[in-house]
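Re-run with default settings, no changes from the original entry. Doing this only to confirm the output is reproducible before filing.
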Amino acid sequence: MANLRLLQRHCHALALVAWGIVSITRAGSNVPTNLPTTTIVESGSYRFTRNAVYLGMFLGLIGQSIACDNPWLLMMLVPFALVIRYGVAAREEAYLERNFADVYRAYRARVRRWL
């Protein structure tokens, strides 16, 4: 029964990643981070978190480490979170503020970075 709950939580994390990708695509923007962002996505999962895909990845890593009973994976959460927060999300936020100015600032004021 515990394994079923872990599998369900892992599926929820994957669903959050997929919902984030679908939200970006439906808004007409690009998913790959090496392509320019064409709009601020405020619908779908991005109504609740500014980093839906990264949050789903983080939650998936938690689920995977518990399901595999692997403390090394669990310890990797710290560097993973730091790289995503300061190496990826911070650059993306600066890019969005430069390119979308007040629209992004208003969105940032309404929606939390993570949850």
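The CA atoms of residues 46 and 52 lie 6 Å apart. The longest helix spans residues 77-110.
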